[in-house]
Amino acid sequence: MNRSVLSACSERPAAPVVFRTVATIGKAARAESKGQKPVILWLTGLSGAGKSTIANRVEDMLWRCGHHTMLLDGDNMRFGLNKDLAFADADRVENIRRTAEVAKLMLEAGLIVICSLISPFRRERMLARQLVGEDEFLEVFVDAPLDLCKQRDPKGLYARALAGQIPNFTGISSPYEPPEAPEIHLRTDAYDVDALAGQVLDVLRHRGITACAP
Ligand code: ADP
């Protein structure tokens, strides 16, 4: 551990008690050892829009091409790190903050991180983006009309929310703020999963993140 360069990260300049430790092995070295350019793909959209389905397909494609990846699924995070959080606005905000911080650590480990979370609020998505470098965060809007999501209802959640059994359900009793300028916009009502995952790979190729072709 290199403690020769320390910077205070306390908000109290008079008496900082926490110091940032600089690791000997940096982000660039970790990425280089994996032969890839790390990035966070942040998939946002309504429940049932297709985030998990596409995230899995994209990860599978990247994996087969030899990339080192990690999938962070919003629901799965709620079984562990975020199991103390519910779905009120403040809990959703904290859910995003923690997930973004984890994604940032994985980015620093040199991974291509695919995050799949409803993440309904623009402000929190912006905060997640601001945690990392400009080229390191790609917002992916997984877009399907609410009516189609209700029809798909893969987990039966819309039926329960419409019956009043789930409070604060996005799209029904809690708002969803669509991205205004996502790097990638996927219309899951118009294209199939393979085509959409292919669109993501196209963007990654253009940005020099992969040479992988579907
Ligand atoms: P989310 O993670 O956004 O809640 P899921 O991926 O769990 O959504 O569920 C989406 C459902 O819609 C799945 O049952 C999937 O098979 C279906 N589906 C149909 N067409 C598409 C498509 N083009 N892209 C993604 N999912 C689709």
What does this molecule look like?
The chain has 214 residues and is of the alpha/beta class. It has a single domain (3-7, 25-148, 178-206), classed as Rossmann fold (3-Layer(aba) Sandwich). The protein has 8 helices and 7 strands. Strands 4-5-3-6-7 form a 5-stranded parallel beta sheet, sandwiched between helices. The longest helix has 20 residues, at 89-108. It starts with a strand and ends in an 8-residue tail after the last helix. Residues 1-7 have low confidence and may be disordered. It binds adenosine-5'-diphosphate (ADP). Adenosine-5'-diphosphate binds next to helix 2 and helix 8. The site of adenosine-5'-diphosphate has 18 residues, from helix 2 and helix 8.
The CATH homologous superfamily is named P-loop containing nucleotide triphosphate hydrolases
The average pLDDT value, as a whole number, equals 93
Give the CATH level 1 class: Alpha Beta
What percent of residues adopt helix (DSSP H or I)? Answer: 25-40%
Shape: globular
Strand order of the largest sheet: 4-5-3-6-7
Outline the biggest β-sheet: 5 strands, parallel
Q: Strand tally, please?
A: 7
| N- to C-terminal distance | 41 Å
Question: Can you tell me the residue ranges where pLDDT is under 50 for at least 5 consecutive residues?
Answer: 1-7
Ligand species: adenosine-5'-diphosphate
- Rg from C-alpha positions? 19 Å
Helices and strands: which structural class?
alpha/beta
CATH topology name, in short, is Rossmann fold
Write the layout of secondary structure elements.
Elements: E1 2-8, E2 19-22, H1 27-34, E3 39-44, H2 51-64, E4 69-73, H3 74-77, H4 89-108, E5 112-116, H5 122-130, E6 137-143, H6 146-152, H7 157-162, E7 184-187, H8 193-206
Parallel strand pairs: 3-5, 3-6, 4-5, 6-7
Antiparallel strand pairs: 1-2
The structure holds adenosine-5'-diphosphate (ADP).
